Amino acid sequence: MARTRRVVCIGGGTGQSQVLRGLSRHPLEITALVGVTDNGGHSGLLRKIFGIPQVGDIRNCLASLTDDSKLLGRLLKYRFREGELDGVSLGNLLVCSLIRMNGSLSGAVTALGRELGVPHTILPVSDQSTQVCAELADGRMVRGEWEIIGRTPRVPIRRLFHWPVVTCLPECVRAIAHADMIVFCPGSLMTGILSALLTRGIQTALRVSPALKVQVVNIMTQPGQTDGMSARDHIEVLAQYLGIAPDAAVVNTRRPPAKLLRAYRRDGAEPVRLDVEGLRETRIVEADLLEPTGKDVLTLYERGGAGMQVGPHFVRHDPARLGRILRSLL
Question: DSSP code of 203?
């Protein structure tokens, strides 16, 4: 009898949760390695108050693997919309409380995952708190994800690094070593995906891993991070930080609806161009990956609260289609 294939997903936030929803429909052993440096939204506020790693993305991943019939699972996704609590995530508060009770973010997530009956493993890349930093082409240094996104003038990023330097959890290295496939999820490429890779120990583990390495390319550009970047640019930047090109890249071919594009245009974002011809080291898998229409995503996916920094999250990968494609690559 063939053993269950092991898949490691690296990323954070909405993009990673969509990948997890898709993969969890298949008989796979999944480990999600989640970045900890986002400093926006309600999670960023908790970081400032308690000096902890970012909890919002890992809470989102837990919620994506939780049965909605469970009360605790629904509470994880609940946000207040009133007064001074506008935008506050109850799930983030639960994780923050468990950090205090268990002594670490990984301990908090393990305890919460066990209580929720989550059948897969979710790990922060580190239990230590740090910020992603950028050295810009003009020599300036910028510290913090949203400080990088909001920099003026928007000088190109020369390199990314963590300050302070943090070490990855040993469990992350073990998961990568035993993986059959490693998926680099869609999301904030510079300050999310690449930031996770900057955690000491992760890059070496990835370079020596024989696993199939697959990148899911973003559908939209992100202001302050990937302005004007094409699909090829996304793949080449990941290869630069990995030290090797991904074996495959999955790219979306369908243009998002005009009403959603208008919302993104106000934020300075546009669809990622598909200039992927002639890439020799990376196999390109093209498909319509947009979530099906039929729901009011402008209302459903509205996020944030008074004074909280958060970008639009209306255009998303369809979990079912993405899951089928990734499973087929195995």
Answer: H
Residues with Cβ within 8 Å of residue 27, at least 6 apart in sequence: 4
pLDDT of residue 2: 78
Which CATH number belongs to the domain containing residue 263 in this structure?
3.40.50.10680
**pLDDT value at 103 more than 70:** yes
Mean pLDDT of 289-304: 64
| Mean pLDDT, rounded, for 190-202 | 97
Give the number of domains in the chain. 1
Residue 192's CB is within 10 A of a number of other CB atoms, namely 27
Distance CA 103, CA 119 (A): 23
Is the pLDDT at 297 greater than 70? The verdict is no
pLDDT score at 305: 57
Separation of alpha carbons 90 and 22, rounded Å: 25
Kindly report whether the global pTM for this prediction surpasses the value 0.85: yes
Burial 116-150 (b: 16+ CB within 10 A, else e): bebebbbbbbbbbbbbbbbebeeeeebebbbbbbe
Cα(141)–Cα(138) distance, integer angstroms: 9
Provide the domain limits for residue 224: 5-329
